[in-house]
Amino acid sequence: MGRGVMSQKMKRVAAWLGCAGLLAAQGCEQMGCQQTAKLEKRIADLDSRLQKIERLLPKPPKPQEKPYAIPLVTKLEENKTYTSPILGKQDAPVSVIVYSDFQCPFCKRSNPMLKQIINDPQLKDRVNVVFKHFPLSFHKQAKPAAKASIAAHKQGKFWLFADKIYENTRNLTKANFEKWIQDPKIGGNKISLIRALIDEDKNYETIIKEDMEIGIKVAKVNGTPNFYVGKREGDTVQAWKVNQGSLAGIKKMIQDKKLLDLGKKAN
């Protein structure tokens, strides 16, 4: 096809587009007010919907200005007390607190890190791990598992039993709890576990309730797992929330808050 024919066609197309644009412009002038009103109404509608959604969204937490005082001991009936399970050196100057749910897949995934913390060359014997219960309501077997772990804790078998629970999060039944405590790797007593779950149920309810109330009201727990790190002061940890729940995140918080000099090893 020659250049002249192409040029004529291009001119015709351009002329057609120009006419179409002119007609559209005239139509817009005639319908302008109506279309503008519709558009403004639609924008106002969308704005109203967005405002409703924003009101339903949780407000971002305020930056933590001071440490949260998280107790390690719960007072029970008849002058009894319960001390939260501690992994690592019991009197280490710094503690990592984890609020956890035994049916939570993210808690299961982070569980191996707890041993990494106490075995890390920079943290060993200087940092321990404290377990706090936070069974979520939609995880129906998390609370029974928490009670069973507390009964195992009474036998000094909490951490081994907790590992067994995390290995079997889809099979959290009373029969399995009784079976697992007898596992040779755990070495617990089935009868003691059964009796404890019956006799101490009221106390176990108190322990879980206290952990959760302090978690919500004091530590601002907003899910599981939540990690905190802080100085140990008697039976309380003055703790800072770790936004990045990893070994690196915990070390960073220790350094940022000057809880330990990670360049030095424990004596």
- Count the DSSP helices: 8
| Low-confidence sequence ranges | 1-6
Instruction: Report the principal-axis shape.
Output: globular
Whole-number mean pLDDT: 88
User: Radius of gyration, Cα only, in angstroms?
Assistant: 31 Å
Number of strands: 8
C-alpha termini separation? 91 Å
Instruction: Give the strand content.
Output: 15-25%
Helix content: 40-55%
- In spatial order, strands of the major sheet run 1-8-7-5-6-4
Give the biggest beta sheet.
6 strands, mixed
Plain-language structure description:
The protein is an alpha+beta fold and 267 residues long. It has helices spanning 3-56, 105-119, 142-154, 158-167, 174-180, 190-199, 201-217, 247-256, and strands spanning 68-71, 73-75, 81-83, 86-87, 94-100, 127-133, 226-233, 236-242. The strands form 2 sheets. Strands 1-8-7-5-6-4 form a 6-stranded mixed sheet, sandwiched between helices. It starts with a helix and ends in an 11-residue tail after the last helix.
Q: In brief, what are we looking at here?
A:
It is built from eight helices and eight strands; from the N terminus they run αβββββαβαααααββα. By secondary structure, the chain is of the alpha+beta class.
